[in-house]
Structures are given as C-alpha cells and as structure tokens.
From TrEMBL:
Location of the PucR C-terminal helix-turn-helix domain: 464-521
Lineage: superkingdom: Bacteria
Domain spans labelled Purine catabolism PurC-like: 11-130
Stated name of the protein: PucR family transcriptional regulator
InterPro entries in the record: CdaR-like_regulators, PucR_C-HTH_dom, PucR_C-HTH_sf, PucR_dom
Length: 538
C-alpha cells in the first residue's frame, strides 16, 4: 500500500522527552495508530475518548487503589485508546501486576517515565506532528481529486479510473456492477478471486479493517460498488477518502456514458423512424448503412412489426432479450437488422445480405426458430404476433413496407386465424375487406347474404354457418364436409337442405358462391374479438 505516514506508538519514542521512556507492557500493540494525545487525571473517562488517543497521566486519580487502576485501564482498552504513558515517582511508584497482565493480554502499550516530564510540551509536540500529517493528507487528497477530475475529461472507460486509484493506493481494486461479475485490478487468478469474493460477502455482515467499499448510485438506485482490499496493512482514513472520491468520479463517468448512450439511442430512433416514414433520400440511407458497417448497397428489404400480447396478469417479455433473439436469428438467416421499439411493439427493418432472394422462405424459417426457442415456449412468456409488410427492392421504399406491415397487423388482429405471423402478400381478400371497411358498412352488406343463417343458428343452434364454411372450403364435396365436421351424411343432407331454403337453391352457383365466401370472410373480420378480449377469454 502506498501508505500515508500514520503516527504510531512506536514513532512516539523518537520524539522529545521519550528518550528514557520504557514500554513495560503490551509490546504487541506498539504499532497502534495515535490520532491525538489526552491527559487523564480523573476516574471517569468514558465520554472523553473517541478512540486511538495516547493517554498521559501521573496516576493521581487512582493512586493507592489497585482495583480502580485496573478499572481505568480496562476503560482505556474498551474505548480503543492507543496506549497509556505514566509518570512514576510523583504519585505512583510502580504499576500493579494485574494492570500489566491485562495490558499484555490486550496488546495495550503501557509506557513509563522514570522522571518528571512536561506533559504540555509532549502534547504540543505530538499534536503538531498529527496536525501536519492531517494537512498533508488533505493536500494529497486535493491533488488526487484534481488529477482525477482532469482525467475524467479524456477517460473513455471506467476501467481507466480503476487503474488510476490502483496507482494511487497500490491495493487490490474490485469493482462490481449490479447483476454482473466482479472485476479485479490488477488481474488475479480464479482461486484468489473466489477467496476474496468470499471475504467481500462476509464483510457485509462483519466489519473488516482490510476491506472497504463505496456504493455507486445513479438516479437514486445502487448501480455498482467499488471495493479496496489490503491484505496486510489496515485500511486508513486516507484510503477511505480516496475510495469515496473515486466512487463519485465513477458515478459521474457512468452517468455521462448513459447520457451519451441515451442521446445516441434517441438520435438513432429518430433517424430510423424517419426512414420508416420515408423522410430520407437514397444517398442518406446508403451513407447511414455504410456508417453501420454495410459495404454493399442492399436493395431487397422488408419491415416486420412484432407485437407483444401479455397473458392475463403475467408480465411482458424481457424486451431486451427479445430484441437480441430476433437480431441473432435473422442475422443467421442472412439479414441485417435495425429496430425501433415503441410501447409493446418492436419494428424490425430487415435488409437482405445474401445473393439469393428467397426472402420469404428465410423469414419463415427464422420465425419458426424463434417460435421453437425456449424463451418463447416457456409458460410465463407473453404471446407475440408478427406482421410482415410487402417486400421492396429499394431501401428508399422501406416506408411502403412499413405501412403495409401496419396494415397487416391491423388485419391480423381482426382475424379468427390466430397464427403467430402473416405476410401482407398472403392476405388477399382480407386486404380488400380492410379497405372496403373504411368506406362501406360491411355489417349491413354481409347481413344481406348471411343474416337468415345467423338468425336460424341463434334460434335453433343449428350450426348452419359452420356447415356452410366447411362445405365451401371442401368445394361442395359432401363426404369431405361430413368428415371435417365429424357428422354423418344424413345430418349433413338435412343441414344443406336448410341452407338451400334460407339462401336459395342457387347458393352454390359460381357468382353467388363467390359472394357468400367473401361475406363469410367479412363476417369473421367483423366478429373476431380484439386481441386483449381474446386473450382474456383464454
């Protein structure tokens, strides 16, 4: 340890008036630190000591009373005094054996003067040393703080600050961010690390004079912790002050990093959002892609919108992990990935990295990998919906893919088919229905064709609407329809007769059949519950 000079009992013997002094007990504590000198000539000192004082006394208060003498020395020890200096001859002629035994047991130094000494001069001399020592500490601390503050202007990582405090104190520096591993400066082997980590954990419940720590707070929350570890020499007050100043510097540095990172994230969000809205030129986009390490001018792209759907009262997915999962899987399938996060939606811009243009197949493969991941399959996971926009062949048209991805998501939330993903190009009639719904009363339109069937089912629970859907999906095959509905043919014939009565005998003729099929899709689109409602019903 690059130790600041600390006055010890042993150092006192080098001072004036201690030339003839003798240590008669407690030699094991001769390296105790002396912070002040106190003259005691009373019998009650419990409120007079703060610890590490060197006691000067003639013993007048306890002369001829061995029991009181022992009691006084016991109080000195309990109050962590540095040692006791006794003047023999005036009031005391000797130190009782009981006192010497107690001092030896507790390594409490007892020093005797054989002749009368001037306590005032001793006090002034030692106090001047202590005061000069304190002044030197303050000066060195100020120099350290100024140097550290200057370095903060150019320091790039907090590791540089850890190296700086190590250079100043020459003790082991340990740093730990919340939920991360311990870092050691200098590096030590794993066995030593485990041993010291065990000691660090123990110091939280039991004080240690070789370990000190300082929490690092950001925004009122403990963000990290800084430790110093001295194997042989106890940690001094100066070390603690250096530790505190350094923890403050690290907090400032981390806060600056977070601010820069957040500012960069906001700027990136605004730029990507502008790209999604079609605000950037082709040259600006290529420049941005080049800055992000994309050398070739990519053309093929598509936008995906991922929406999280919490299950009942379960918490939402770990969004950070979800973004990492998507990025990793899509990159493995040949895409460069950019994303914009907003509320419970993450919008991904996928740029094709490969010469093969089977984008759709690769996206399907990636989504299936995501579906099969343990993270998505776990019971506590919230559900996700993925809506893919139209495939575009110029990065300047990303906004077109984005708009169609939003349309896909809107339609997807209206569909009874709750599969995890849909592509805009596969929606066909649903896209037409979505557009028509903006200008036409589709409910009234579908009622013209389906209302008699719906009313019959409501009145008699006849399952005619279900039968009609299956019959049309099976292209009028009675055998396939009965198998699909798990009913006997006679029941199917009965239901088909009812449908003819309600819809007309010509309901399977081409034009009317197409119209009815379309209206069945309209009915599903209008009657499908919202995502939240469907989720609560599960």
């Amino acid at each position: 340890m690059k130790e600041h000079f600390q006055l010890t009992v042993a150092d006192i013997f080098k001072r004036k008036h201690f030339e003839q002094a003798m240590v008669i007990a407690g030699t094991g504590g001769i390296q105790r630190t002396v912070k002040w000198v106190h003259v005691v000539e009373v019998t009650s000192i419990r409120n007079l000591l703060n610890g590490q004082e060197l006691i000067l006394s003639t013993g007048v208060a306890w002369k001829d009373n061995v029991e009181l003498f022992v009691s006084m020395v016991k109080e000195f020890i309990e109050n962590n005094a540095a040692g006791l200096c006794l003047e023999l001859g005036t009031y005391l002629s000797e130190v009782p054996d009981e006192v010497i035994a107690m001092a030896n047991e507790h390594h409490f130094p007892i020093i005797i003067f054989q002749n009368e000494v001037p306590f005032v001069e001793i006090t002034q001399d030692i106090h001047s040393v202590i005061i000069n020592q304190q002044y030197q500490k303050i000066s060195d601390l100020e120099n350290y703080s100024q140097s550290l503050n200057k370095r903060l202007l150019t320091i790039e990582t907090y590791e540089d600050i850890l190296q700086f405090i190590f250079s100043a104190l020459d003790v082991l520096i340990i740093f730990k961010m919340k939920n991360q591993d311990y870092e050691f400066v200098p590096e030590i082997n794993f066995r030593e690390q485990d041993s010291i980590i065990h000691q660090l954990e123990g110091s939280k419940t039991q004080a240690s004079d070789t370990i000190a720590s300082a929490p690092i707070f950001l925004f009122g929350q403990e963000y990290a912790e800084l430790f110093i570890y001295s194997k042989d020499i106890p940690i001094s007050e100066y070390d603690l002050l250096i530790l505190d100043r350094t923890a403050t510097a690290i907090a400032q540095h981390l806060l600056r990093d977070l601010y820069v990172e957040e500012k960069k994230r906001v700027e990136e969000f605004e730029w990507l959002h502008g790209w999604l809205e079609g605000e950037h030129s082709l040259d600006d986009i290529h420049e941005y892609l080049a800055e992000n390490g994309m050398k070739a001018k990519t053309n093929d792209a598509v936008v995906l919108i991922t929406k999280q759907i919490p299950i009942k009262e379960r918490v939402s997915q770990d969004v950070t992990y979800l973004k990492l999962l998507f990025r990793s899987v899509f990159e493995q399938n040949g895409f460069a990935v950019f994303f914009v996060e907003k509320r419970n939606e993450i919008t991904f811009i996928l740029l094709n990295h490969r010469t093969k243009k089977n984008l759709k197949e690769r996206i399907k493969k990636a989504i299936e990998s995501i579906q099969d991941s343990d993270f998505i399959r776990r019971p506590s996971s919230s559900k996700i919906m993925i809506a893919a926009g139209k495939f575009i062949h110029s990065v300047s048209d990303v906004h077109k893919s984005y708009q169609t991805a939003k349309e896909t998501l809107r339609i997807q939330q209206k569909m009874t088919n709750r599969q995890i993903y849909h592509f805009y190009e596969d929606l066909h009639l649903y896209r037409l229905i979505s557009q028509m719904s903006k200008h036409t009363d589709l409910k009234e339109l579908s009622s013209e064709y389906l209302q008699p069937v719906i009313q019959y089912d409501q009145k008699y629970n006849g399952k005619l609407l279900e039968t009609l859907k299956a019959y049309l999906e099976c292209s009028g095959s009675k055998q396939e329809t009965s198998n699909k509905l798990f009913i006997v043919r006679q029941t199917l014939y009965h239901r088909l007769q009812k449908l003819e009565n309600l819809l007309g005998e010509d309901f399977m003729e081409h034009e009317k059949r197409v119209a009815i099929e379309f209206m069945l899709l309209v009915h599903d689109y209008l009657s499908a519950p919202q995502v939240g409602e469907a989720n609560q019903a599960r």
